[in-house]
Amino acid sequence: MDYCTNECFSKKEESVILIELSGSLVEERFSVQIEKIGCISTDEKWVLMMIKEMDIRCHFYGEKFSPKVVEKQSGITLKNKIEVGDITKRGGNKGKPSDYGNGELCPPKEFKDKEDFGLYWIALTLSKHIDILRECGADNIDLVIGAWFEEQCNLSFEPEAIKLIGELGIALQVSCYEDY
């Protein structure tokens, strides 16, 4: 089956496709990310990405890190906030005061639904506020991508986002999980 078209588009959608297996057509239903990967003569070539879900977030923590101060000084909103001394609600220290502060930067929904799942938004937000984050005690900054896939996990990242992340000196961690 040929996945070429003259139309230019990129979208995420629930799809039904027919796959030829040993001479028989089989209906396959899955959520796909359709993305242009190159041109062949006048036709655009498209690949079906088997990424089911993508979670991108940046974790900040440190012995003096204060997510409340970061939010006040920067205007950004952090999730899963823990101030130093807060009673922890989960994990090995559940019920005890935390000896570190913690917060997570996650892309808003309108950016999570974009082609890059919000990676560029996170990179840009980090580049604008990295000094405030570090001044507020973020000794550790972990940029993490979790990708849930079906069949195979093919990922590509836009150079603009990768360049910003590299300039900040932050490692990009990627974990892939087979969808169940």
Kindly list the characteristics that best describe this protein.
180 residues, alpha+beta, five-stranded mixed β-sheet, four-stranded antiparallel β-sheet, 4 helices
Description:
It is globular and about 45 Å long. It has a five-stranded mixed beta sheet, covered by helices on one side. The model is unreliable at 1-48 (pLDDT under 50). It has helices at residues 67-74, 109-112, 119-135, 159-168, and strands at residues 4-5, 11-21, 24-40, 43-49, 51-62, 79-82, 101-105, 140-149, 172-178. It is α+β, with helices and mostly antiparallel strands and 180 residues long. A hairpin with a 2-residue loop joins β2 and β3 (24-40). The protein is built from four helices and nine strands; from the N terminus they run βββββαββααβαβ.
Secondary-structure topology with pairs:
Elements: E1 4-5, E2 11-21, E3 24-40, E4 43-49, E5 51-62, H1 67-74, E6 79-82, E7 101-105, H2 109-112, H3 119-135, E8 140-149, H4 159-168, E9 172-178
Parallel strand pairs: 8-9
Antiparallel strand pairs: 1-4, 2-3, 3-4, 5-7, 5-8, 6-7
Quick overview:
The protein is 22% helix and 42% strand. It has 180 residues and is an alpha+beta fold. The longest helix has 17 residues, at 119-135.
Largest sheet: 5 strands, mixed
Outline: globular
Mean pLDDT: 77
What's the total count of β strands? 9
What's the total helix number? 4
Look at the helices and sheets and give the structural class: alpha+beta
How far the N terminus sits from the C terminus, by CA atoms, comes to: 26 Å
Q: List segments where confidence is low: pLDDT < 50 over at least 5 consecutive residues.
A: 1-48
Kindly estimate the percentage of residues that lie in beta strands according to DSSP: 35-45%
Strand order in the largest sheet:
6-7-5-8-9
